[in-house]
Amino acid sequence: MNCIIVDDEPLARRAIKYLVDQVPALQLLESFNNAASASGYLATNDVDLVFLDIQMPHITGLEFARTIPKETLIIFTTAYSEYALDSYEVDAVDYLIKPIPIERFRKAVNKAIVYHSLLTDDSKEDIEQIDNDFIFVKSERRFCKINFRDILFIEGLKDYVIIQMDDHRVITKMNLKAIHEQLPKSLFMRINKSYIVNTGQIESFDNNDVFIKTYQISIGNTYRDTFLQEFVVRKKHS
Question: What letter does residue 57 receive in the DSSP assignment?
């Protein structure tokens, strides 16, 4: 990943450069002592990742972050912890407090590498299967980790799907068929034109509906026989 450093303190720039040099996956292109110079560089060069200080004269790191293209990832590097919440507003990958331990730095970079891989993999659009136990889906300019076991059901809504968990939901631009193909068939079943359910979350069912927590989801006529047969068979062998 190509990266740049933006920090008004010379010692801080050298410290971050040292950390960057410890990670073979990173290629440092330039270092800048102000946001204006970095902005000009970004306009004419491809940069994957910016290590960005927050408290800088004239233009702060937070102000500058709002102008950075969404394809370029940001990791804030600062001596002040009170800006952490603000960093989420600009979709920063991570927020590192100086002095930065090398292992904490590596962890942040590894997260950036995963996000970068997802952003640049056009063939898989907004979803990427990472492991047998979870997926990442793109929602509001960031990729969210979704554990399969936490999904109650998935609802299709035109070109979007709503992934419902117990205490929150994630909305991503993806049709129901596409996300169904990414899910383990041993756990998920489509029970009507608009819903995929996690069979492990089904608490009860009858001939017309399945019941998951407080949700009642109808079984479509064309899906009923397959659902009843396969669900019963799964439970007999589980």
Answer: S
